[in-house]
User: Fold these one by one.
Assistant:
Number 1:
Amino acid sequence: MIRDINSLDIEKDKLIHSDISYQIIGTAFTVYNELGFGHLEKIYQRAFAKELQLQNINFKEQVLYKGENIGNSFFDFLVEDKVIVELKKSDYFSKKNIDQVVNYLKISDLKLAMLINFSKNGVLHKRLVNLNNEEK
């Protein structure tokens, strides 16, 4: 079961990978504050990667399933080998994008994914948790 936990009332210390999550969100805001709205998704991805490097946060880009290309299914970033990050340029969270990230959680068997949208109104973020995965 995958759950969107944005709407749940959860204390910070009970969030999964809370420190990494806050670093990821902070990185997204830094990128947005620097670039603003209106760029291609690829520009946000490159800036996000550069900002992760500047902050000495461990990450991998364009992660494939078990290191192999099995189609067009790969996520934008894997941060600290724990959190999937998928970046989009959109003003809302579409079902298609949420389903995409849910599938990434299932095939990766990771616990947490973050969907981040760069919108005309700022950064929007959604945490998705794989409840079928016990923390390794």
Number 2:
Amino acid sequence: MIRHANRLIIAMSLLVAPARAADGGMPQLDPTWFPSQLFWLTVCFVTLYTIVSLFITPRVGGVLKTRANAIDEAIALAEKLKKEAASTRGNFEAAGIEARAKASQLIAEAQAEVTKEHTAAHQKLAEKLEAELAASDAEIKKAVSKATANLDAAAIPLAQEMAEKLLGGTVDEASVRTAIGTISKAA
């Protein structure tokens, strides 16, 4: 019940409030002031709207446009640099491939020249050794021939003396020489 009484008091005070405001309380709630209040509300709104639309909005729009242009320029520059980097990378890779190919070619040429020089040096050495071998062989034949001749010369008197002792007679030097020459040729 107390609740019901409180509600009734609140409702009556709301009905009495406009009457008290008109008596000297709050002029905002007095209906006679409404046209003046609407006039000043319109004047203030139009003035603020004009200030915002003529001064504040263009400045904010300019800042936003400048910012958007700066972002667009930064993006364009980044894309340009990205393309340049890709181009530079491609050029670098192409130069690397070309350098590898040239290095391979130079290595192949160097190997071919070394092989050619090695073959020429080997052939020259083989010719030199063959010439030395031929000269040595000739010297050996000459030494053998000389030694054989010396041996034959030393063997003739010895063979003659042995034949004389074995046969008990004299043997002529020409027949001993012929026999030793036949034996030397057979050996």
Number 3:
Amino acid sequence: MVVAHSIPSDLLHAPFRLGTALALGVNRDVLRGSRFRRPYRGVFVPNVLPDNVIVRTQAALLAAPSDAWPSHVTGLGLLDLDIGSPRPIHLSSCSPHEREIPGVVVHRRLWRPRLDETRGVPVASPERNWVESCLLLGFVNRVVVADWLLRWHIDRGSLVEYLQRTHLGGVRRARAAMQHARESVDSPRETVIRLCLRFARLPEPEVNVLIGDAVRPVGVPDLPYVRYRVGVEYDGEYHFADLKQRQRDNIRRERFEDAGWRLIIITKEDMRRPREIVWRVYRALRERGYQGPPPIFDDVWCRWFERAAPRAVA
């Protein structure tokens, strides 16, 4: 028998079932100790492992039917997009599953899609996970995922073709969100800001357009209004934590000012007050000749951007 302080290395790198530990000679008292946590009945996780989507999903799969795979927002999380709520874990399976697993939703499917291994876990395609997630996500976050797909995973034509031929639940919502998706979006925050401005009835900014030319480039603002020489940019926390990055940002802004541009910098704290963001952009546009009406904050805008702020990574 393995003594309490000696744990086989096979049990330290991933979640495992009770039977696996017992077969290796680890007794139940050791498993009840501080070195392990038990997220599900008969499933243990070494406490040296982080509590992230990968580990949580690996553990959930051990408690679920053997043919289960991550789906919906959980599938997106494994593909590096932190969107929606991290809990519960969403899995899909073709097997009957009557037993309830706390913190896990198992969706019944008639057939198993093609799965590709990601970080040791079988995952369906990003576009499939997006369509399934549209049943769980609000409108703004549906567009966030669509922008992310177009930026990193699939071209617009292929994604539109996929939406035309699939019959998954959520596809109608995905098709509606697709109308507002744009290429070349670098971060979810850019999507949220763009939609925040657009649905307040301001002109929609372009996305990551090179200002200047290849010989004398000025820079690429996140959300430029080229006609008015106004750029809207989101600066994440790393822009302030890294001194070298801050220096590069300052020099870059000076180049835009020299070229006659006005940059509006949005931070994580600003995202808590989306109405102020809209007014700041509106005032800057007015100063540069925009003659359109002031922003409108209707019930839909308030619901999407104030009462239920979209959850997206910084």
Number 4:
Amino acid sequence: MTQPVDPLHWKIKDLEALRKGVDVDTPLSREFLAAALLDSNTSVDLDQSAVVAKAHLDFQHDCVLCRGSLLGELSLQCQRCLAPAKVPVQASLNMTFVPAGGALPVRHDEGSFDPSDPDDVDYAHHDRETVDLRPVVREYLLLSLPITVLCQEECRGLCPSCGIDLNTSTCTCQQRVPLSPFSALAKLKI
């Protein structure tokens, strides 16, 4: 068996030939990270970001079991002050790839899943020829991101008037109280 060109894309026959499975330990490429984060509404500094996919793939009963993790750090843009924010990536990869149109196997031995617990493991399909980990790794990467990316928990953001970074400086702008749509009602006399 030869090592695949893309370590996240394997031929089923190669995995079937390996009795003890195969370990995958690969850094995610700049291109992969850029494409994965394209729709995440945040800017990424690819030069300061590094994420590694580590997993063990095992072929059992027409299924490919994937157990591993994503580890690393992304340099994203803070959503309040626009400064770089270091975001740790730590996500478990637990996926069982079943043949498209096939039934889920029922097994209860060590290291397998319990079909009575649907939250035990996630499922995806393979085409009986290859198993592609890229969509799964992308999904787990996106799920590992926080909803709000901040450079620090207490980030004060930018002044809405002059744009100065309130974490490093104090502005001299007069803070305007936003006009309420109900402020005209205060003048009514009942």
